[in-house]
Amino acid sequence: MKNITVFSLATALCALAAAPVVAQEKGDMLLGLGVHYVSPKDSASTTTAGPVDVDGATSATITFEYFIADNIGIEVLAAWPFEHDINLGGAGKIGSAKHLPPTVSLQYHFSNSSKFTPFVGAGLNYTTFFDESTSGALSGASLSLDDSWGLALHAGLDYEISERGSLRADVRWIDIDTEAKVNGTSIGDVNIDPWIFGAAYVFKF
Fold this sequence. Notes:
Layout: H1 2-18, E1 29-39, E2 45-47, E3 50-54, E4 57-69, E5 72-79, E6 82-88, E7 92-100, E8 103-109, E9 116-134, E10 143-145, E11 148-160, E12 165-174, E13 177-182, E14 185-191, E15 195-204
Antiparallel strand pairs: 1-4, 1-15, 2-3, 3-6, 4-5, 5-8, 6-7, 7-9, 8-9, 9-11, 10-13, 11-12, 12-15, 13-14
């Protein structure tokens, strides 16, 4: 009888260990502090001035996520401004601009029994451009970039390092298209559509 009891207890403990656990519960909140690199797509955009492409940039980011249900959260992304060089095919750098990419996403965190918690999300991005400047072939001209609304996709992995702290690696893709104007005249759309790679420390409270 004793052996049966021990076996039953061991079986129950193994089953409990193997069973998935809730990654995050309703009402939980996550604050993430990190660094992200914005990598615009490789191909240049065709404009009336010629092919235009945008260099990558790195900046500090912050995220806040509130769980509206077990494993399901709404995340808001904010950042310190990213600054990008703008290049014209055959003419090199023609200017630079800063942007802010606030993004709201609905995310699902997968249940599991390990320290690793993967998640996926989708949402809406609003990108605003400012401090546009010109140089090189466009030196002295006025450059402006329209704000952009677009789809945002998100995936990542959290690794638990304490009861409340995790390390995060993530990637985003954002649909960012902006109309470029020189001296008030449109020269066409610039399709940035970047991949965004990052790492962060995430605190649960």
